[in-house]
Amino acid sequence: MSSRNLSVNSVDFDTIKSNLKTFLSNTDTFKDYDFEGSGLSVLLDALAYTTYYQGVYNNFVANEMFLDTAKQRSSIVSHAKSLGYTPTSYTAPTATVNLNLGSLVGYDTTFPSGSVFRTTISGKQYRFINLESAVLDRTADGVTTPHVSNLEIKEGSIRNKTLLVPNNDPYQQVLIDDDYVDTSTIKVTVQNSVSDRGGITNSWILANDPVSITAGSNAYWIESEADGKYSVNFGDGVLGVTLATGNLVNVSYLSTNGPLANGVGRFDDITGTNSFDFATGNTVDVVSFASGGSVRQNAESIRKLAPKSYSMQNRAVTVNDFQTLIESNFSGFSSVFVYGGEDASPPQYGSVIISFKPTTNTTMSTEFKNSVVNFLKDRCPVTITPVIIDPILTYLRFDTSVIYDPSQTALNSNAIKTFVQNNLQSYVLDNTDDYDTLFSTSLLAKNTIDGEPSIVSVSSKVSMEVFVTPIEVSTDYTVKYPSPIFHPHDGHQSVVSSETFQYLDGESFVNAQIKDDGSGKITLFNADTPSTIIADDFGVVDYAAGEIKFNLARLAAVENRINFGVRAVLDGNVIQSSQDNVIVFNTGDVSANLVSVSTSTDAGVAQASSEGTTTTTTTTTSSASTSSGSASGSGSGNGGGY
Question: Please, which of 39, 323, 327, 434 could form a disulfide with 338 given CB 3.0 to 4.6 Å?
Answer without folding.
Answer: 323
